[in-house]
Amino acid sequence: MRFEYATRASKGARNYQEDACAVRSGADLLMAVLADGMGGHAGGALASDLACRFFLQALATSAGEVPARLTEALELANAAIAQEATGNPSLNGMGCTLIGAVFGPEGIEWVSVGDSPLYLVRRGEILVLNEDHSLAPEIDKLAAMGKISWDAARADPRRHFLRSALTGTEIDLIDRSHRPLALQAKDTVVLASDGIHSIPQAEIARLATEAATPEAAAVSLLAAVAAVGDMHQDNTTVAAVRVGDPH
Known about the structure:
Elements lengths: L2 E8 L8 E8 L2 E10 L2 H21 L4 H20 L9 E10 L2 E7 L4 E5 L2 E4 L7 H9 L5 H6 L19 E2 L11 E5 L8 H10 L3 H15 L7 E8 L4
Antiparallel strand pairs: 1-10, 2-3, 3-4, 4-5, 5-8, 6-7, 6-9, 9-10
């Protein structure tokens, strides 16, 4: 199984970038990680960079089954943030979300913390693979039970509050794949920071499907986010991975 990939990032309406992303290939595996920083300009950018670097390095140099390697890499990324923040009051509250994914012959396996989405696009359809650790799903549950209106749910300013993140302390919620998810030729997997939520999932599916290459998909996705013209647009980073035809 062959994998092609591309990454792209935009600052959006901000004058700084708190997202980080990295991809590495080795042997018959492709490893990707994306993090979205929090805790102020300097702290957020540092946290996401540290998390990506330590996660990918740990994943690339470890051995054994992929789930255990993903867990170990996540723990080391979290420990790196803790060590950096120790004794530095200016970095209080530093942290990030993280998606780490491994693509191999059996498919994709992942670990994630926070609200950065992991999408699978197949034949024009889109599926969110990982859990959303923001308050949005909890608020939507209240609307589904009739306790608040859907309009109130969508307008709730707490939707983007995180229930879990890498902050150097115990991680409250971790989403893991239970087994490899088999992939098919022409599937596109998109790792993204939450800035991508400015466009609907149906638009993400359309753009990823119509794109001839992962690079074209990544460029089109960021262009669509920019076209929304949100004056408060967050940073947006995407890593698009396309499954090629078998050799």
